[in-house]
Design the sequence.
């Protein structure tokens, strides 16, 4: 694991892994969405609206997974002080926020015909909205610390602190009466018919690979940025 | 005795902080349990009725066989039940969501009247965690399993 903390070795790996992840993720997500949107039978109660499941669920899981990645990378940075871990946390923030926003938007569109409302302030919806705001705060904080050139210790602490929200989102539908239904997929058990479960799992896998590919691409871009800046600074100091 | 490396000290501190944070979050959320509920269950409402001048929500299942239209033609009446013994009669005039059928989940917004009848101003349908295609709806679980076995043998 520590071997890949070396930026040069990381770049060598990321160079071929990034396009591989992005391409395989795109193909898998495209197949899953094609099957989900056109081939799967309508639900007994919700009818055609059930198809939004194949976007809503993967984006919801990855919205939460993105913050777990930020928290994990932040912990690794605080312990081993490796700059690449801080970079990984920074890179995961924007895709995480985008997926959380897609989850909220699709959930709202889904809620209108099935529940009869665009939005309610119940435990699940509110805690997911808080996650989106946490992402915005984290992005602002980590960008500011990078711009000022100070140690990313404060965004790392924020990333750890924000992880408190993840178990709350996960348990919100179990602890409280909420309009959102309880989890359909629990350990080794699924209340989702096999006709939906297959494409759903493929969709989750595809979106996950896409997410990983975007994070790697962003890490490469951030590294290149830092190198370019360091070179400019060196040239400026030599010229002076 | 060897000294603890600073790296390991930070690891232990970090993990302890994370565990403490998650425990704090769980405790806080657990303490909120009753305050963060989105709706009353029927037996909660029966045993501890909310004041009649306050808007509250009532959630549960639409009792099978209880749904009927009143004589005025626009008001529907039904009972909301939970798995236990609680049962609250509800009146509502207006358009109901697609998923509103007998036996399905519902969240009614409105007020409890003095007579113990809940006057709903808005109805929200609640979906459960089951996703089942239309074709399999009529079949019992046993029939559906048989079909699956037959399909597998046919392959």
Sequence:
């Amino acid at each position: 694991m520590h071997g890949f903390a070396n930026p040069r070795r990381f770049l060598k790996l990321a160079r071929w892994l990034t396009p591989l992840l992005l391409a395989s993720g795109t193909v898998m997500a495209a197949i899953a969405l094609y099957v989900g949107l056109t081939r799967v039978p309508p639900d007994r109660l919700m009818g055609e609206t059930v198809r939004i499941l194949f976007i809503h669920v993967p984006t919801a899981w990855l919205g939460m997974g993105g913050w777990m990645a930020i928290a994990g990378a932040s912990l690794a940075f605080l312990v081993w002080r490796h700059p690449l871990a801080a970079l990984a946390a920074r890179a995961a923030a924007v895709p995480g926020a985008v997926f959380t926003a897609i989850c909220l938007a699709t959930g709202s569109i889904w809620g209108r015909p099935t529940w009869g409302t665009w939005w309610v302030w119940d435990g699940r919806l509110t805690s997911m909205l808080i996650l989106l705001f946490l992402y915005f705060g984290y992005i602002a904080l980590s960008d500011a610390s990078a711009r000022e050139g100070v140690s990313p210790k404060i965004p790392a602490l924020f990333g750890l602190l924000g992880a408190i929200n993840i178990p709350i989102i996960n348990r919100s539908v179990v602890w409280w009466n909420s309009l959102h239904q309880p989890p359909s997929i629990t350990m080794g058990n699924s209340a989702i018919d096999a006709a939906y479960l297959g494409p759903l799992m493929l969709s989750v896998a595809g979106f996950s690979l896409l997410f990983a590919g975007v994070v790697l691409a962003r890490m490469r871009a951030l590294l290149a940025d830092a190198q370019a800046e360091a070179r400019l600074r060196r040239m400026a100091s030599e010229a002076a | 005795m060897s000294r603890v490396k600073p790296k390991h000290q930070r690891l232990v501190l970090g993990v302890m902080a994370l565990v403490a944070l998650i425990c704090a979050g769980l405790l806080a959320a657990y303490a909120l349990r009753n305050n963060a509920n989105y709706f009353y269950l029927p037996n909660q409402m029966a045993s501890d009725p909310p004041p009649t001048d306050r808007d509250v929500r009532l959630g549960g299942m639409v009792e099978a066989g209880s749904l009927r239209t009143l004589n005025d033609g626009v008001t529907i009446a039904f009972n909301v039940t939970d798995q236990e013994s609680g049962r609250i009669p509800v009146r509502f005039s207006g358009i109901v969501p697609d998923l509103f059928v007998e036996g399905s989940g519902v969240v009614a917004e409105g007020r409890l009247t003095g007579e113990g009848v809940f006057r709903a101003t808005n109805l929200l349908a609640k979906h459960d965690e089951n996703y089942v295609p239309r074709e399999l709806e009529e079949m019992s679980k046993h029939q559906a399993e048989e079909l699956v076995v037959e399909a597998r043998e046919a392959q």
